[in-house]
Amino acid sequence: MTRPPTAAQRRVIDAADPVTGRLRGTQEQLAALVKRGLAFRHPRPPHEHFLTPEGHRIRQGITREPEPAGSGERAAPAGVFAARTGGEPDPPPPGPARRREVHSAWQGLLELRRMTNADAAADRPCGWERSHLVPAAALALEAAGHHPAGPDGEGYRVRETPQPEAVAVYQPDGEALLTCAATLEGAGWQVSEHREPRTGTRYLLASPRRA
Length: 211
Prior knowledge:
Blueprint: H1 7-14, H2 27-35, E1 39-41, E2 49-51, H3 53-59, H4 96-116, H5 127-130, H6 133-143, E3 157-160, E4 167-170, H7 174-186, E5 189-195, E6 202-208
Antiparallel strand pairs: 1-2, 3-4, 4-6, 5-6
């Protein structure tokens, strides 16, 4: 589990612009946030720094803290948000807290699209998603209510592929696989269905749409 931000880093995050997520701080502070995946440096001059979806989640105060006694939801350790890709050995528990985290991260990602796409489009993946393909696709699925694979193997799994800008999405239920395809297409991804040559397993190949 990634350590939560330090007090100094949290002050920089809390002072971010509430709409754009633009950050102000020393170069050392900003570089540390980038290294932890909480901020990114805009590729165009003047190379401002902005919060990533994980940074937006932390700024909005949605942290993984123990639930009150009797809530029926197992407490999870504090840390940086991570989209569920399916099949994790120790996944975060489901429930209202997780849904709030996912919703906040998705809204932060949409704002990131508006800020960094040249035409301010929010319906098309941005540069951050292209450099974080697996978590970006997984976040789109989880935010839409799809269930990641658990110990029983049911649910989606998002995995890397040898292709430079594509991920594979597996879902044992055929109808659910088609629903995943529709969700990704709606989130700005190009999707095609394939079968593994040896096993015949159906899967999706998804790439961020550029236009």
